[in-house]
Specification:
With 292 residues, the chain is α+β, with helices and mostly antiparallel strands. It contains seven helices and 16 strands. The protein has two domains: 171 residues, Probable tRNA modification gtpase trme, domain 1 (Gyrase A, domain 2, 2-Layer Sandwich), CATH 3.30.1360; 72 residues, Beta Barrel (Elongation Factor Tu (Ef-tu), domain 3), CATH 2.40.30.
Length: 292
């Protein structure tokens, strides 16, 4: 098991009140009722056209009718405003917990293993969450308990991943990241978020009509792909179909070795994946797999 500090890289907001679950369900693509005492959910926050305003993880708080919503720090100026926008007559209230809480993600484990280790720490919760392409556990609590939680977790989480190691893990697992594969122009289906971030059985939410229509149609304009190369490549390099000089995709993330990458590739080009090549011809594509 490894630990991944999220206290600084993610912001945490709390929605609390009798109407919290109902309101939140109207804003996100997954079903809040899937949350249990030790299980959270991942979800998209979309606009009316079904494109991303952001991505979030929702965890049950330490009290009933309390939900902790965390999201990448890059969204701090836009996503809270979006989430608060429609809270008018609902009996619920948002509060910013970012500076008063800590957050650690433990890889390759489950909440039933982690929860007993932090059970004696007041206000600290251990919630199973899928992050970076794999299931793990988020430990969230008051900032005053951060040191005690770290001590409690130290015997099993013996490695702390730095930013580059985390990026390598994410790319190896084919997980998209905000600012790389995920932008305000992204549709959830294009980057493989439907299985983990979308419920097709819950009630209405903003963007639902477009997302449901795309599932029925089964087509996307582009798809997230994972590729390996013979030599190092860099972010931003364009892909082409052999015999054409027209770009059909772009590399969006590259691991520390430079030979495993994620890319967004146009749907038409994926009809002949073996013909896709780097426009600069600086390396050969050894493998290319659609993750959608």
């Amino acid at each position: 098991m490894s630990s991944i500090p999220l206290t600084s890289s993610h912001h945490r907001w709390q929605l609390a009140g009798p109407d919290a679950a109902r309101y939140l369900n109207g804003q996100i693509s997954n079903d809040v009722h899937r949350c249990t005492e030790t299980t959270g959910i991942a979800a998209c926050v979309c606009n009316a056209k079904g494109k991303l305003d952001g991505i979030v993880h929702v965890s049950p708080g330490s009290e009933p009718d309390h939900f902790i919503v965390d999201f990448p720090a890059e969204l701090e100026d836009t996503l809270p405003l979006r989430l608060e926008r429609y809270l008018i007559a609902d009996d619920a209230e948002w509060s910013d917990l970012t500076d008063s809480t800590f957050q650690i993600h433990i890889t390759d484990t489950t909440a039933d293993i982690i929860a007993p280790l932090v059970a004696s720490l007041d206000g600290v919760v251990a919630i199973s969450q899928a992050r970076f392409g794999a299931l793990g556990v988020d430990v969230i609590g008051p900032i005053a308990q951060q040191s005690a939680a770290a001590d409690a977790l130290a015997p099993i989480a013996t490695i702390t991943l730095d930013a580059q190691e985390l990026e390598d893990l994410r790319i190896a697992n084919g997980a998209p990241r905000w600012g790389a594969e995920l932008t305000p122009d992204t549709l959830p289906k294009e980057v493989g978020l439907e299985p983990t971030h979308v419920s097709f059985t819950k009630g209405c939410y903003i963007g639902q009509e477009t997302i449901s229509r795309m599932k029925t149609a089964g087509k996307v304009r582009q798809a997230l792909c994972k590729l390996t190369t013979s030599d190092p490549v860099t972010t931003g390099m364009e892909l082409i179909v052999e015999g054409s000089d027209k770009p059909c995709g772009t590399i969006t993330s590259v691991d520390s070795a430079g030979t495993t990458a994620l890319a967004l590739v146009k749907r038409a080009a994926l009809e002949s994946p073996d013909a896709i090549a780097l426009a600069t011809n600086c390396a050969k594509i050894s493998s290319l797999t659609s993750l959608v």
